[in-house]
Write a structure and sequence with these properties.
It is a single chain. By secondary structure, the chain is mainly beta. The chain is about 0% helix and about 35% strand. The protein has no helices and ten strands. Strand 4 and strand 5 form a beta hairpin.
Length: about 130
């Protein structure tokens, strides 16, 4: 299984031997798939595991003057986490996305199937 580490078994594999799987560092078990994390050898074939490990997202893209919030916007960032962005000075942004969702290691615009773009806030001008 991709992006996993195997424990509790070694070759040669015996009938009914069970191997346990966990996600490799920097990955997480994707919720929404069957969560079985073991595989058993039966009649020369492996049955299981029935899990998927997805890549964690890096820190969300950000620019100076941007406030990042969200109840699920906390490292480690995993698939399904959503972060919200606003200008810390209360001004309207000049570009970028107000929200992004972590999807298998990539920050995506939450309402579109496109990579997210960091919010751009106007810089303060003192005169």
């Amino acid at each position: 299984v991709n992006n996993t580490v195997v424990t509790n078994c070694a070759e040669p594999y015996d009938q009914q031997e069970t191997c346990n799987y966990d996600c490799a560092p920097g990955h997480h078990r994707f919720e929404g798939t069957e969560s079985s994390s073991s595989a058993t050898c039966l009649d020369g074939n492996w049955h299981g595991p029935f899990m998927s490990c997805y890549v964690n997202c890096p820190d969300p893209p950000s620019n100076p003057g941007v406030l990042i919030t969200g109840t699920s916007c906390e490292a480690p960032y995993i698939t399904g986490d959503i972060c919200f962005f606003e200008c810390s000075n209360g001004q309207e942004p000049t570009g970028g996305d107000h929200d992004m969702s972590c999807v298998n290691g990539v920050w995506m615009h939450a309402a579109q199937n496109l990579p997210g773009e960091a919010l751009v806030c106007p810089t303060a001008v003192f005169g």
